[in-house]
Records
---
Amino acid sequence: MSGIGIWIVLIIIPMLFGLYAQAKIRSAYSKNVRIGSRGGITGREAAEAVIRSAGITDVKIVEVPGELTDHYNPLTKTLALSAPNYRGHSLAALGVAAHEAGHAIQHKVGYAMMSVRQTLAPATQIAAGVSNFVIIGGIVLLSYAGSALGYNLLVIGAIALAVICLFHLVTLPVEFDASRRAKEQLVGLGILDRDEMRGVNETLGAAALTYVAAFVAALGSLLHILLILAGNRRD
Ligand SMILES: [Zn+2]
């Protein structure tokens, strides 16, 4: 395959997949945030019911600004929900709230992949900070001067991308497991009827796709750099 062909497969297609996943979550969310649940309880109440049922009493549930800024912070034991999910009783709100509660349960039961993800988080932050600079610098030095410094910078870039890639890979089971717990609890606790789960499945499925896209993009970038390194080693 030519350099352009490799670039299209490893960089452009994953990027388009990422844009598709972003569009998908936006449309799934905006559709299901308008469908009210029959039970009428809010996202906050649903998150509370799910964590209480798991015997969790030390997690704070707070409202945060922004759209889809919902998250669980294991360091502060805070479950943060954006306003429409905190106050609303839509299928999307209940799905997202129960998903974040799923993360709180993972934390309580010591779900292994969550601990691995937590451990990788600081290194990933550093890697994300340096990778672009190092890779662009490496490619420029390598193509114009063919220097050993350029090659070495790309090796550092590849290590940074490998860390980022591993982080996104470990994120996948964490996210899938949180959604699985959410769906079980929404039905099990009687928060939603079975026929209302379609909206939840649609929303959480689209959210999961964005995590898959992030992993695919990281993997594509890593392979791309590894191919460049392999090509320059031969020369
Ligand atoms: Zn999540």
Note: The pocket of zinc ion is lined by residues 99, 103, 175, 178 (CB under 6 Å).
---
Amino acid sequence: MTTVETESSREKLLVGITPEMRMDLRIRAAELGLNVQDAATHALALWYETPVTEGVAVKGAKSWGVFLPKGGPTRFDEECQRRNLAKVQGMAQAVTNWLAKHPSPTQRLLSQPVKRILVALQKGGVGKSFLAAGLAQAFAEAGLRVLLIDYDPQGHMTRRLGYQTLSSKNDNSLLQHMLGQARKHIKRILINVEGKRFGNRLHLLPACTDAFLFDAVMSSVRHGREETLARALEPIEAEYDVIVIDGPPSLGLSMDIAMHYVHRREGELAERSGIVMPVWADTPSFEAYDLFDGQRKDLMKGTRVQIDELGFVINHYDSRRGASPQAKKAEWEERGAPGVLAVFSDLKEQREATDDHIPLFEYAPNCELTDGLRNLAKELAA
Ligand SMILES: Nc1ncnc2c1ncn2[C@@H]1O[C@H](COP(=O)(O)OP(=O)(O)OP(=O)(O)O)[C@@H](O)[C@H]1O
Ligand SMILES: [Mg+2]
């Protein structure tokens, strides 16, 4: 039974709906930032354009009132009559259809390709390894399956997490896989990063000293050089929700290949994968970024792909050092796109965790840095 009441510019539709469906609609609307009335209005608009919809179980439906734009209840009545359907069935079809077309952000994450994040800037010591390792730990703690790649031949991150780098005699390194010359499965070199918070979900692809030869070796690869990292990782990508790369400390071919790896894939949402750039609140960081950004743009032009910047992270920030860091921080913030995602101070926990070769989230799980990394991971996971 449908009755029509008028309330300002909207009209109330009374219709049966199962409590489960009503709750699903309310939750999904909230996840997508809509109120229930707008979600129901969208659902009906979509249903009017959908010629045939399968029958949906409506047992246990209870009366539900929802305000639609003027004329909405009448239009719904007419459409149900035209389709020779009970209104409870019409609404159930519309809501089911809408829920399927508008998955929750967590389902959407799973239905999208693996999220690829490169943490990079060629300037030395800005905090690439800190940020890459910290983000990976935060993602894993939050329940995501994470592959963390030490793409820097120096292998700082591998050692700081408490593991050994591979020797250049190893014939199963990432470089060997990129060149198509490895004999074993790439899974064989992955390390399960121990830690009760990571639940066996955090895997490290360790650095290998042969990566010092990276650019020299890669320069002789004539075709498909940019695709080499994607090819090497292809056999294991599907096992992860997020892949985080600790970028190289130079602007050579290895950087081109890493940047290309995180380009936006067909059908992938904008700014879902891309580059996070740690910077300091100082002039050399601006100069370094300008060079970095120039390389990204040249690469996009040359290879016709979109490489998204996800944002800056200001690291080692110390406002007590006077007006200059404060002014430089404001300058990063005023740049607008891609925006500052987070600001981290220089804190003893990271230095101590580094010295002790223990993952930060194990060494000091509740400190300002881990809290900040958790928030950043939450934002990037969305
Ligand atoms: N927010 C922080 N608080 C305290 N120590 C930090 C912080 N960020 C980074 N560090 C420390 O500063 C040093 C340099 O940082 P990190 O190694 O992450 O920089 P990087 O950009 O990876 O350097 P490289 O160019 O050598 O690869 C490390 O010892 C690291 O543990
Ligand atoms: Mg590093």
Note: The longest strand covers residues 309-317.
